[in-house]
Design brief:
Order of helices and strands: HEEEHEEEEEEEEEEEH
CATH topology: Alpha-D-Glucose-1,6-Bisphosphate, Chain A, domain 4
Radius of gyration: 16 Å
Number of domains: 1
Structural class: alpha+beta
Distance between the termini: 40 Å
Number of strands: 14
Shape: elongated
Oligomer: single chain
Helix content: 10-25%
Strand content: 35-45%
Length: 180
């Protein structure tokens, strides 16, 4: 089931022409959450974050696994042909690496603080690298997150990204590219 969600994200990347932002009204995909029997709906939000680097796509592709590792996201898929790297869906609580989840996503707020820091969060991160010119690359980064309270029997609710994880990943890519 997780593969279906990842396939949906990859399909959105593969079918979108270069430079295209996926529309908010894209078709949601219902997937099962591994090990829980729960279902949640993943729908593309505001679309992928698009960035251009003055580096050949093959060089960017080579550093992406290390960039994923540096932000605390394990790699679940490497599609060399389409240059797509993604996780298979990650169920976490409170932190991604050493960073509080509320630094990356907004899942609402209660009297005790941001929900992202106390809820169970299921996230998907995917990046596709494409040629943007003879020696430049376009990175299309999609980050989706859903969360639910731990103490109550409630379904997952959609969270919104503030762009910080996408920016941190891009910073990691740039730092790795500048290392000889």
């Amino acid at each position: 089931m997780r593969c279906q969600a990842l396939f949906a994200v990859i399909t959105v990347f593969a079918c979108a022409p270069s430079g295209t932002v996926v529309a908010t009204g894209a078709v949601p995909q219902s997937i099962g959450v591994a090990g829980s029997g729960d279902r949640l709906t993943i729908a593309p939000g505001s679309g992928p974050h698009l960035n251009t680097l003055d580096v050949a796509p093959d060089r960017v592709w080579r550093v992406l696994p290390a960039a994923f590792d540096s932000v605390g996201v394990p790699v679940g898929r490497l599609d060399q042909g389409n240059k797509i790297i993604a996780n298979d869906g990650l169920k976490i609580r409170q932190r991604l690496g050493k960073v509080l989840l509320s630094r990356y996503i907004d899942c609402g707020q209660t009297q005790i603080g941001p929900n992202a820091d106390s809820y169970e969060v299921y996230l998907i991160l995917a990046v596709q690298v494409r040629a943007a010119g003879p020696s430049s690359s376009s990175l299309s980064t999609t980050f989706e997150a859903n969360a639910r309270p731990i103490a109550f029997s409630q379904g997952y609710s959609r969270c919104t990204t503030n762009g910080a994880l996408e920016a941190k990943l891009l910073g990691a890519v740039k730092a790795l590219l500048s290392t000889p």
